[in-house]
Amino acid sequence: MIKRNSAKAIIIDDKRILVIKLHENNEIYYILPGGGQEPGEILHEALKRECREEAGAEIIIGDIIFVREYIGKNHELAGRHGDYHQTEFMFLCKVEPLNFVKSTLPDRGQIGLEWIPISS
To answer: pLDDT band at residue 54, thresholds of 50, 70 and 90?
Structure first.
């Protein structure tokens, strides 16, 4: 079983949330920017690195607002993630200034970034 920590950024601006758009296995879906913590890496460093790699964004990390335990065998992607047990730490973040450069290391299947409207 693969156990790891992951840090995710919840970036909200003008009633929209920033997500990564992925296309895999003939499906399009969205995830929060962020990813796995490397051995010896501080969780905040992991989140900043992942946001640079995936979104081309420099972030300011705020409060942790949610923790999710992801157990792959209980998920609709069990065929691919059956060995995963991941704890995800989600932080409220800001991008300052609100502009982005090209992603340096996008995720496999990543086809873009999108601001998705959220209701209040």
So the answer is: confident
Greater pLDDT, 70 or 37: 37
CATH superfamily placement of domain 2-105: Nucleoside Triphosphate Pyrophosphohydrolase (3.90.79.10)
Q: How much is the average pLDDT of 1-22?
A: 91
Closest of 32, 35, 33 to residue 84, by C-alpha: 35
